[in-house]
Amino acid sequence: MNTIRVRFAPSPTGALHIGGVRTALYNYLLAKKFHGTFILRIEDTDQNRFVPGAEEYIVESLLWCGLKPDEGPGFGGEYGPYRQSERREIYQTHIEELIRNGHAYYAFDTTEELDALREKESAAGNHNFKYDAGIRMKMRNSLRLSQGEVERLLAEGAPYTVRLKVPENQVVTVHDLIRGEVHFQTQELDDKVLLKADGLPTYHLANIVDDHLMRITHVIRGEEWLPSTGHHVLLYQAFGWEDTMPAFAHLPLILKPDGKGKLSKRDGARLGIPVFPISWAGDTPEDSFVGFREFGFDPGAVLNFLALLGWNPGTEQELFSIDELVEAFSIEKIGKGGSRFDFDKAKWFNHQYILAMPNAELARLLRPLVQAKGLDPSEKFLAAYCGLLKDRVHFLPELWEVGHYLLEPEVEMNPDAVSKKWNPDLAPALKNVTEWLSQQTSFDAEALEAGVKELINEQGIKPGALLTVLRIALAGDLKGPGVFEMMELLGKDATVQRLARALHHFNNSAS
Ligand code: GLU
Questions:
Q1: Which residues contact 266 (CB under 8 A, 6 or more apart)?
Q2: What is the Cα gyration radius of the chain?
Q3: Which residues, given as ranges, of the chain have pLDDT below 70?
Q4: Which residue, by CA, sits nearest to atom 10 of ligand 1?
Q5: What pLDDT, in 10s, does the model give residues 264-284?
Q6: Which residues, in sequence order, are CB contacts of 31 under 8 Å at separation 6+?
Q7: How far is the CA of 389 from the centre of ligand 1 (A)?
Q8: Centre of ligand 1 from the C-alpha of residue 259, in Å
Q9: Does the annotation count 265 as an active-site position?
Q10: 135 and 173, same domain (yes or no)
Q11: 62 in a domain, yes or no?
Q12: What pLDDT sits at residue 90?
């Protein structure tokens, strides 16, 4: 088999939707699985829709996710330029070839003329006006006008487009790797514009010429492009490139969390969830979005989540590293039906990633946040802290929120908890426990638990009551990890200090 060459070909028209990242991911996985090449191509021929900063956003998103292109603008490669706006001459030569071969023609009809015709047809009951084989011989184009007339119009600089001459009464068959055979009747297809009046190609022409010249072997893209594929196959035929035509795979939609319709960028704001990889600052608040990155996601978890939105490994396995995804991936296991965007599932993946991450690594990631609070715990302490709290969080910043009182030098006690749970009768027991703890030489949770519980029994008080008070003394409230785990983490001096301070505070607040 030829080496696999795939491309991710976004148009820089704004922030890259998370569905686009999934498309990039599937392309990347296929390329890596077969030691092929993953290409980034920027399809920027529609000047009206060009948005400054969008290309940079796309590149930053891909790099954050770890989907680094092997070829692309700024990434090198022998098939560039990889920005379509820099390939004008290439399209020009190819369009001339199609005109010469009789597969395309000049159309001089102005927008006003076409609008008027569309209106006329609509008034006569035809609401689906198409510039096609049925009407092309009634229009102002190089098929109908004499050669002299065409030359005169061209020499005069009359504006024109170039259209594909769709052959009549044929069936075009696309072999889609996900959907099987898809047929198009050419009567249904219009004579698509290939070159616009501004001299730039349309998506259809540029896409096919580039896929051919860049030796693309597989086109993996969203299913919204399936209806265009009939035209694309006709273009391959018109150029005589059928033999090297890429294989097509059209990916199913990503659906809204309730399964009703396609996930849109507005769903993010509506539901307070990210639907973009990284944040995008648009001109207005409505056009600005928070990304998965800023939400606190690990890129590995995002890829894992996205991989399973449409692809099924065929086993029960849900957690995959990127290498495991590469190994397991196959286009055949991509489903036809849409997949629901389940944000809770995305959070679950991130939680699993946090659980699986070494404590030292979590500590490294958390440290800037802790330092921003003016604290600088030792590496060992912060790693142990992360280990103790990681099963309580979905996102890294939450590691601070759920346990900051263990990092701060002093704990602030919740007065409600104190007044509800403190009973002066517990004072002697609390004092004894504090004293016993101050005499211990080793400070591991299990041994502490056994020792303290024995002590409580000897005092003849309810263990629950004292344990709650110990919790308030250490955590300031009724929440937090196990009391003895907290003691082990804090170590003897800090534990004893917190208990002594708490006793003082309880006594004062009771009086
Ligand atoms: N430029 C198209 C897009 O924005 C590319 C579609 C394709 O992959 O052919 O999605």
A1: none
A2: 33
A3: 1-2, 510-511
A4: 10
A5: 988 998 999 999 999 999 888
A6: 4, 5, 6, 37, 38, 70
A7: 43
A8: 24
A9: yes
A10: yes
A11: yes
A12: 98
